[in-house]
Amino acid sequence: KRTFITTAEQLVAFANEVNVNKNAYTGKTVYLMADIDLAGIDWEPIGQTGNCTFNGVFEGNNHIISNLSVDSEDQAGAHYSSGLFGWVESHTAGHGHIKNVKIAGATVKGHHNCGALVGYITQETALVENCHVTGATISCTYANGDADGDKAGALIGNATVATPVKDCTAADSKVSSGRDAGQLIGAGREANVSGCSAANVTVEANG
């Protein structure tokens, strides 16, 4: 029930296991065991709604994932979500958790639900805890009525249904969106945010 990641290649393989093989990792924990540099890799967000989601536990062990690059501007469908993780959800307590992850120098481009760590996280039993983003550039632009340039944050694009977000930070980052934009979270309908802060994060939104 445990997966250990020490290289960029292993992190890509984990993403493919979720996205291609539809492995949700429910009841399983993935451990990041080293700093990972994703320079030169076109990152595919881990998990998407209606197709595949990540429902396990990702333990970052305070390691740094640097140079994350996500370009989802060709994805114009409803709810396509962009970040290190695209769509994270949980159906039982103790799953859908992202913990102790540091992301440095991320660039994320998309049309809906954009954040360096998670594009969209759902359910009150999910959790984001002690995660930190620095030097991120998040851009969410209009494509159509389904992907209308909304919900962008340095950490999370969209957090719903009382999802706890605890002890997280964002710093030295830029967020731009058509609407629903924030320093940490773009949209937080019922989100339960505590112990979080942002420093030198600029936000631009048209509405």
Description:
The protein has 207 residues and is mostly beta strands. The protein has one helix and 21 strands. The protein has one helix at residues 8-19, and strands at residues 2-5, 29-32, 36-37, 57-66, 69-71, 85-88, 97-104, 107-110, 112-114, 118-121, 127-129, 132-134, 137-140, 150-153, 156-159, 164-166, 169-177, 179-182, 185-187, 192-194, 197-205. Strand 1 (2-5), helix 1 (8-19) and strand 2 (29-32) form a beta-alpha-beta unit. The radius of gyration is 15 Å and the shape is globular.
Describe this structure in a few short sentences.
Helices cover 6% and strands 46% of the residues. It is mainly β and 207 residues long. The strands form 3 sheets. Strands 1, 2, 3, 4, 5, 7, 8, 11, 12, 13, 16, 17, 20 and 21 form a 14-stranded parallel β-sheet that branches. A 4-stranded parallel β-sheet has the order 6-10-15-19, with no helix packed on it. A 3-stranded parallel β-sheet has the order 9-14-18, with no helix packed on it.
